[in-house]
Amino acid sequence: MSRLILKLAPRERVLVNGAVIENGDRRSRLSVVTPDARILRLRDAIHPEEANTPVRRACFAAQLVLSGDAAPEAMRQQMLRRIEELSQVLRDPDSRALLSRASEALLAGEHYACLKALRALLPREARLLAHGRAG
User: Fold this and answer.
1) Would you say the C-alpha torsion 118, 120, 123, 127 has a positive or negative sign?
2) Which residues of 11-45 are buried (b: 16+ CB within 10 A; e: fewer)?
3) How far apart are CA 36 and CA 5, in angstroms?
């Protein structure tokens, strides 16, 4: 993980290497300098029962690595397969760029950056699914 900057709201919680840490009463900014630290913002966390769409499942897989619940090596192929499947459906240039960024981050072992790129696809997926239900 390359140098990560966390901007935390008051009382925001973050999971760092398995420990839940809560911010104080004021906004703060933390610079994570330890490579390979496992960090997950709890406000961004997807619960297992919420991993019910293709993008959410890909995000959840990245989240498992960040939370320390799965080894990066064990999830790499599954995550690459999910990203490839998404690239077959999300063909617009913006989605392709995000999927490329997610794939590159995954291959570089930067799981937070991978999750960030995948999360950016959630609104697009929601719009597509809503349109599919309406049609």
Assistant:
1) negative
2) ebebbbeeeeeebeeeeeeeebeeeeebbbbeeeb
3) 14
CB 73 within 8 A of CB 106: no
* 111-47-96-128 Cα dihedral, nearest 10 degrees: -170
Whole-number pLDDT of residue 2: 56
Query: What DSSP character marks residue 108?
Result: T
What is the pTM assigned to this prediction?
Answer: 0.85
Q: What is the pLDDT of residues 10-54, one digit of tens each?
A: 999 999 888 999 999 999 999 988 877 888 989 889 999 999 999
Q: Which residues contact 61 (CB under 8 A, 6 or more apart)?
A: 70, 75, 78, 79, 82
